[in-house]
Amino acid sequence: MEELTSSHILSLLLCSFLALSPIAFAAEVTDTLGKGQNVSDGETLVSAGGSYTLGFFSPGVAAKRYLGIWFTMSEDVVSWVANADRPLTDAFGVLVISGTGSLLLLDSSGQVVWSSNTTGTGFMTAQLLNSGNLVLSDGSGGAAMWQSFDHLSNTQLPGMKIGRNLWTGAEWRLTSWRSLNDPSPGNFHYTTNLEGVPQNVLLDGDKVIYRTGPWNGQWFSGVTEMATYSDMFAYQLTNTPSEVTYGYVAKPGAPLSHLLLTHDGVFRRLVWEPSSRAWKVFFQGPRDICDDYGKCGVFGMCNANAPSTSFCSCIKGFSPTSPVQWKMRGTSSGCRRNVMLDCGNGTSTTDGFVVMHGLKLPDTRNASADASITLEECSAKCLANCSCLGYAALDIRGGGVGTGCIIWKDDLMDLRYVDGGQTLYLRSAKSELGTSSSP
Ligand SMILES: *[C@@H]1O[C@H](CO)[C@@H](O)[C@H](O)[C@H]1NC(C)=O
Ligand SMILES: *[C@@H]1O[C@H](CO)[C@@H](O)[C@H](O)[C@H]1NC(C)=O
Ligand SMILES: *[C@@H]1O[C@H](CO)[C@@H](O)[C@H](O)[C@H]1NC(C)=O
Ligand SMILES: *[C@@H]1O[C@H](CO)[C@@H](O)[C@H](O)[C@H]1NC(C)=O
Ligand SMILES: *[C@@H]1O[C@H](CO)[C@@H](O)[C@H](O)[C@H]1NC(C)=O
């Protein structure tokens, strides 16, 4: 990630030397643009702590210029781009605050290439904070009029959110670049999905191709790695009537980090290691074949350590829907139940539960949650409803079996084993209950 490409060399030439040495030339460096001032190509704003730089860059073809924000020590990682799909064609672009209070990117002929679309009259400034957020304010001390953290590119920094504001309907999501050299919007998106029980999803167009599994109070059920770096980062899943969002903050002393959605549809958590001056990949999703959404179809189970069975098997009490296809490794049609459930009338059923350990919980987009009941009550609630096919604890923070309740009523989809995964209680007919059944 650190290799010097032609774009680096160009930006080295074009960016002012001051920007590269913020400490040595501290007096010359500013993080704020005021009315009547401008940032022209070759000039930069540098955040007060030096971590982030705003300026003009060319990711590939030198003839295309973009205004963006990048990590000062790693110029190839650009966290925000203003004119992603309208590159400038010369080095005469300029960022200004207009008389009417808009932050504007103008081309060499003075045409507006990008605008914050704000209006204001006060003492307008645009400041690059040391969080990497570019904030436009009118000096009144009120809320920001515009901020780059609300306009996501392919990068999530600490303090940024993905998901949805349910009051305004605004959605925050990462969008991939079209290619390594082209920041215009690509096909991949990453966001917090609010249907059913929230989970993060990676989309190709509008199709889910990877999901993290639902939040369990500590991490996403399919991303147990998160436990291993929770000393550096605090994760925040917010699920309230006003918003369903996910973000994280860096704990004191944590190194610089970011989450990146690559142009080829891979989601990564990257952490800067100062000694080697390189980004370390702490997590990557999809991480293996079993993370491909629905790899083994409905009621299929993916085991990344079992290549001899093409990774897929049917869960207990189920058999391949299409044995012929399954033999030929066509597993997407999934599995079907061997013995029908005994639904009963709500008070009497002979069904029980098969206990399955170590899982990324199934897709929760059609599931429902109840945080107020115990796992035992969850079990009773499931048995009492014919449409309940399984349940799991919603929150594992307290240890033990966990608390709260997730109930699935649709076919269970996208099941896999993960290290340190969760327990799913699968509703099964009496004759299918082996020794591992719950009481
Ligand atoms: C930008 O600022 C420079 C120096 O203050 C000034 O000469 C130039 O005219 C300004 N450009 C624009 C487009 O405002
Ligand atoms: C500003 O408004 C224009 C025209 O409606 C729109 O195309 C553009 O996306 C808006 N810019 C931002 C940053 O919202
Ligand atoms: C449910 O079935 C049980 C036993 O078959 C019966 O005793 C009970 O009355 C039934 N309850 C209802 C609500 O139909
Ligand atoms: C959710 O429900 C919809 C509508 O019934 C169905 O089309 C879809 O396949 C379900 N998705 C999952 C993951 O169960
Ligand atoms: C059973 O569950 C379904 C789906 O969650 C729900 O619509 C229905 O009201 C429930 N029925 C009872 C009797 O609780």
TrEMBL record:
The record's GO CC annotations read: membrane
From the UniProt record, which GO molecular function terms apply? Answer: protein serine/threonine kinase activity
EC nos? 2.7.11.1
Record-annotated Apple domain positions: 343-429
Q: Where in the cell is it found?
A: Membrane
Segment forming the signal sequence: 1-26
Name this polypeptide is given:
non-specific serine/threonine protein kinase
Q: Which organism is it from?
A: Triticum turgidum subsp. durum
